[in-house]
Structure formats: structure tokens, C-alpha cells
Amino acid sequence: MGDEYKKDKPLFSKEVRDVFEHSSIPLAVYYVNNGRFMTYLVSDAFCKMYGTTHEELVGRLNSPDPFVNIPDDEEKRLWEVVKNFSGKDAPFNAVFHEYVPNLNETITVHANGAHQFTPDGRRYSVVTYEKITEESLQLLFVDETKEELSILDGLTMDCLSIWIVDGKNQNIKLIQNHNGKKNMISNGILNGFKKLGDYQNGLDYYINTYVYPEDRERVHELLSFEHFSKVLQTKKVFTLRFRQQYKDYPLLHIQMSITYGQNGSTGNYIIAVRDVTGTVKEEIEEQQKLQEALDKAEAASRAKSTFLFNVSHDIRTPLNAIIGFAELAEKHSDNPARQKDCQNKIKSTSYQLLDILNNVLEMARIESGKYVIDTQLTYCPEFFEKWTTMFTRETHDKNISISVNYKIEHPYLFLDQVHITEILMNILSNAVKYTAPGGSIFISTTEYPGNEPGTCLVKTVIKDTGIGISKDFLPHIYDDFERERTTSTSSISGTGLGLSIVKKLVDLMNGTIDIESEIGVGTTVTITLPHKIGEAPSATISEPIEDLSHFFYGKHILLAEDNDLNAEIAMEILADVGFEVDRASDGVNCVDMVKSKPAGTYDLILMDIQMPNMNGYKAANYIRNLPDPKLSGIPIIAMTANAFKEDVDNALESGMNGHIAKPIEVRSMLNTIYHILQNK
After folding, report:
1. Which residues fall within 8 angstroms of residue 337, CB to CB, at 6 or more apart?
2. Phi, psi of 542 (to 5 degrees)
3. Residues 6+ away with beta carbon under 8 Å from 506
4. pLDDT in the model for residue 233
5. Phi, psi of 434 (to 5 degrees)
6. Which of 92, 211, 267, 650 has the most crowded CB, counting CB atoms within 10 A?
7. pTM, entire model
């Protein structure tokens, strides 16, 4: 087999072969045929590493036999790597131990290789070897070795042509030229170098004819023999990139890598030429992506800084009002009418503050990916009437007229009531907020056929005669924290998150939103959402109960609440409607009080979630596992500031019967307690 191979056409020219054989890196070049490897040549450093000669290795067919000195437990693993490498274009990379008889020692070797092809399509592989110590096992290659490997990379991979410059007389000679689509590049260099023979004259001709005009001066200077030979006294490789453009041909990016051949700087120099247009294009695109990402990050940072400024102002404004009205109420303690007015304003301003907080938390929740769309059968006439009448007082105070047009064919649809209310309330809130006194708002809700059987589309249009939005700002209308007018300039509060939240919610529901606006004319918002069509339920949903004192009187509640102020408020509200209330300061105290009291003492437990020592979930779970069914079956309602959908789910999963969100809305809380006690 070896003799047959020696008669085959050589893989490389003599000059390239010399570079490989005299390399300071231990390496071997293998001829690949039908998944088998034959050693084509080895370097001097390889022979030295294994204590052998070129003659002993060249032409040898590799099989498991040469690796008999590898320990049995490693041989199977290594040959799996070799087998995979031989049949594919994947790189070869392996670390193994072997005993070298000629040196009478066991060494650790790192082998690294890749397949290449000659211009006529023959396959060969270059594998480098490194003898490593335990200390250097993790490092594998030092920088110097990497530099030298880049020389071989420049000689064997994707090169258009390879040249040798005589270090003494500076003559230049072509030793390898790859033909094909990139022939113009090779010919350009041939015309400059091969014709004239002398490196400097050939360089001048090539640069003046083929190099992009703006790059010529730089290339003249850096590719001069004097410059690169000086650089190579301290470096092993000199690399230069520049642009090439000839007549009407496309602009190309060329890379020239120069290194020295045998005998260092006093011998020959090797020049490898590549077309790196694709690589440069990818680098430019990557730089553009990085720049775009940087621009977005900087824009986001500016927006968040603006947001912090706005939200700080917006939070301080209602807080200042709350504190101010509280002081006024105290000052006018003898004036019930004035006190009631202050209390109403404190309550109204508190809800404004809560809206700001909810918007910030909502956006954080959406961005964290924890948002859940939860649909339930809904009686639409009641639902849409409810949200359109929520701003009755504000519109009355500003003398804004509202007209509503409602056309829904199917009265029962599956809706995510919480989030749809949030969407529509955000839009209507803006309409009321930005419409001047005496203006008008038009609302229409219309059902259209859905894209799939059993579904429909509900289009809601909210049109106002407000101040409008400029054309320049419309493209940024959904950006986080963005506001066309800040609170300090418009006296209208807001975080700049409302429409951003709306857009994200609409997208999550597979709907669409469109906004048209004109300064001084008004704004029209159109929201279209898909819904499944439902049927009327067989049982009537329980209506809220207004006066529940007669039902609550004498019933005993255990309130688990660690915050003294929250506990004081809740206990007074519950006592006012007839409950007897005990308080536990944390989850452990709550469990102890349940266990220490006779069964039947407590009719209900109101459980805070975030408490010291034991949180509400754990406390509820502990109570549910008590051996006495009269204790384990006590109804438990979460009463917590953890108010998101997943918080409700967590409460139910821990064994609770219901959920009440803080801040407490008294009527809603009492209705929830009533329905749970009624079904006890």
C-alpha cells in the first residue's frame, strides 16, 4: 500500500512540503482514502518527539497497530474519535497517554487536526501533536504554538495563492495557485508579482492596479519588504487586510499573511493570500448588531432614567396630597363636611398611587415571562357596561360627554376579564386624562366572525377629542417608559408604561392594536381581540350581597397578619360588620392558635402570605394536614399584597379556599368571605 501511494501525484509543491517537514511543531500530514489514513509526511519536531525518523513513518498505513502502546482503557475511546474523524469533516481533537518505546517513557499527547482538500479535490489531513505535562493539561496550547499554527492555517486553508520571497535578492515566486471563481484575484497578484519577478516592483504594480485607492498608501507602507521583514524579527506572522477593486468587479477584502520559511529571517518568506470578503462582511454585520444593541441599551438606559425621574415625581405628588389632606382633616376636626371631603380626596389619590405601582409591577412581570392568560365564561353586556361606567365621576367633573355603541351577538364569551379590563381601562383612562373639559369620548364594541369555528373577534374603538399625539412620537408610543409629555411639563401623572403594557397584553392574547392621532384633534384607539364563544351557564352566578352584618354577627375569624397597621385596619373593618376577631402575628403563631383552641372555635382564617417564621402557604398546608378534620377543614382565605394570577393559583394549591388582594376593597372582601362561609 505504501509503495502504491508513493507513485501517486504529490499533494503539495516541494516548497510547501519543505515548510511542513521543517516546522517546529510536531505534526503529520495524512493522505485520506476510503476512511483510511496513510502518513504522507511528518515534521522534524514530530520525529524528535517520538524518537523516530521520516523514513520509518512516511508511507505507513495507519491502523490500530501503531497505537498498541496506548493503555487499553483509552484505546477504545481514541479509536472512536479517529473513526468519527475519518468519515466526517468534523475536527479531530483528543488527549491520550502512550508509551514511546524509542524514548522508554510514557507521555501525554494532545492531538488536533482538520481535513483539507487540494485544488484538484484530493483529501488530506493535518494533525498537530503536543506533548503536555499535568500542569499544562488544561492550557493545551500556549500563545506561541497558536501563532505558529496560524502559519500552517494560512498555507493550507482557503488560500487563493501561496508565494515565496527570497530573503536575499527579494525575488518572488508563485508556488501554489487555486483556480476557480476567485481566479481574478490570483491573476491580479500574478500580473503584479510573477511578471516583474522583483518583489518591490511587483508590489507597486499590484497596488496601483488592483488595491482600492483609499488603501494604497497604507498597503505600500506595510507590505514593503523593509517593514514586514522587520516585524518578523519579533513576530512569527505578519497579517494585513485591505480592499481590492478591479474595473467593474465587486469590491473584495484581501488578507495577506507573511511568515518566514527555513532559517528564520535570513531565508525565504512565505506569503499566503486569502479572500476574506465573506468574513469581513460577517464582522461588519456583527459590529452593526453590537452597535444596534448598544444603541438600544443606551436608549433603554435613558428611558429608564427619564422613567425614574417621572415616577419619582408621580409618586411624590399623590403622597404629598395624601399627607396634606390628612393634616387638613386633622386641622378641621370640628368640621365634618370638610373632613369628609379630605377623606374622599385621600382615597382618590391613594388609588392613583396604586395605579402607578401596579403599572411598574405589571411591566416587570410581563418581561419576566410570568404572565398567564386566564379565560373564563363571561356575560359580556354586564362586563362591558361595568368598565365603561368606571369613569363616570371623572367625566362628570370634567364635563366630558361619553357615548357608547354596543353590538355583541353572543352574550357569553370566554374572556380574560382581569387583563381585558386592564387594557380597556388604560385606554379609557388616557382618553379621560388627555381630553379637556367640555370634550367628548366615543366608545364602540362590535363583534365580527372569528378566523376559526366557534370563535369571534371583538373590536373596541375608543375615540376622544383630546390633545392628540404628534406624528413624531407615534412610532415610540409603545416603548417602555416613554411619554411625549412628562408630568413636570403637562401636570398629567403617569409612568409611560400604560400603552407598553397594553401592547404586550394584546400581543399575548393574539390580538391587534392600532392608534391614530393628530395634535389638537384627538386620538382613536382600535383594539381587536379573538375569543371563544360560550353558552349561558345552567346555574345563576351569585350576586354580591350589600348588607351582610346579620350573616356575619357572632362568627369568629382568626387573622394572621404580621403588620400592625394592616392588622388594625382589617380587625376594625371585620368587627364593624359583626365578626369576633383574634390576631396571629405570623404563620407559626397562627398554627399554634388553631391547635390550642377547641375545634369549632374559628369559622374562618384570613391568612397573610409574606410573614416571618412561617409564610402563609406553609401555614395553610400545615393546617390542612392536621389529624382533626374539624381543624383541618377550617376555610382559609389568602389576604395578601401578592395579587397576581399566579399568586391566586399558589394560594389555592396550598389548600386555601379563596384570595383577597391588598389594598383591601371592603365590599369585595366581605362578598368573598360571605360566599365561602355560605358554602362551608
Report:
1. none
2. -60, 135
3. 423, 512, 513, 527, 529
4. 83
5. -100, 5
6. 211
7. 0.41
